[in-house]
Structures are given as structure tokens and as C-alpha cells.
């Protein structure tokens, strides 16, 4: 058997190595991002390793475009759908491991390929619109509560009563 000091030193070395691997993985993951442009090149987006939008550029020629918001969203979705490949390429420290396989599968589930323009979830044609944005209606706001009626004025205290002592104001009422 090994002596206890050698066991502890070996254990400490393994912990330090695992910590370094974890820090390297975190740094690699934080460096992963994906940039994407719209088909006409007028919209550019960048998403970070979590799929969050971290950069947006809009060309001058499309600022008044009726379906600008839809085009931005599709461009973001295309960038997000490329995250799995970017993670595979950007994290060599865990390439080929079960961790990498699970991470890539999760990214594919979280960020699937976007539907082509003119279609909605499930591949159904999108409803025609005139460029106006359709916003799901929320529940109507509750009816305003009626304002309470003001309290009737208090009668003046009778002369000679205990209230006479505080006659210069409405003290402690």
C-alpha cells in the first residue's frame, strides 16, 4: 500500500487537473459565437454560446422594410441553429466525449433549423399580411375599480364637551 501522504498528493493533483480542465472548457465555451447575415446581406446578427443575441447590424436600405422584424428573427434563428457545429469546433478539450455529444444534441433540440420564409411552425404557410405585425392578444385588462366616495364631513364638537379641549384641530381622530 501507498503511504497516506502519497495518496493525498495524488488526490490533490487529480483535483487540480480537473479544475484546470473545467476552466479550459469554460473559456472555450465562452469564446464560441456565431455570426449570420440575411440573404440580402442587409441584416447581420451575432449570437453567443448560449444563443443570446449579442450583436445586430441593420443596413440603411432595409430600415423601412415591412417584414424587417421577421427577417431579423429568421437570421437570428439561422445563427442559433449553427451553434452545435460551432461548439464542436470551438471546444477541442471535450471533442468526442459523451459530454460533447450530449451538449451538441441539446443545442440541436434547443435551436433547430428555422422554417423557410413564408412558413410557420410545422411547415404550414404563414397567413398573408400587409406587413403589419401580428401580436397575440393578451387578456383584457381588468375593469378599473370605482373610486371610493369621500367620507362625509364630521360635525363640529359641541361647546363644553371633551372635544372642546382639542377644538383647534382634529387631533388624534
Automatic annotation (TrEMBL):
Gene3D superfamilies according to UniProt: Nucleoid-associated protein YbaB-like domain (3.30.1310.10)
Protein name: YbaB/EbfC family DNA-binding protein
Region described as Disordered: 110-173
Species: Amycolatopsis eburnea
SUPFAM superfamilies: YbaB-like
Keywords: DNA-binding
TM segment ranges: none
Entry's Gene Ontology molecular function annotations: DNA binding
Keyword DNA-binding recorded: yes
Listed Pfam families: YbaB_DNA_bd
Bias type Pro residues, positions: 141-156
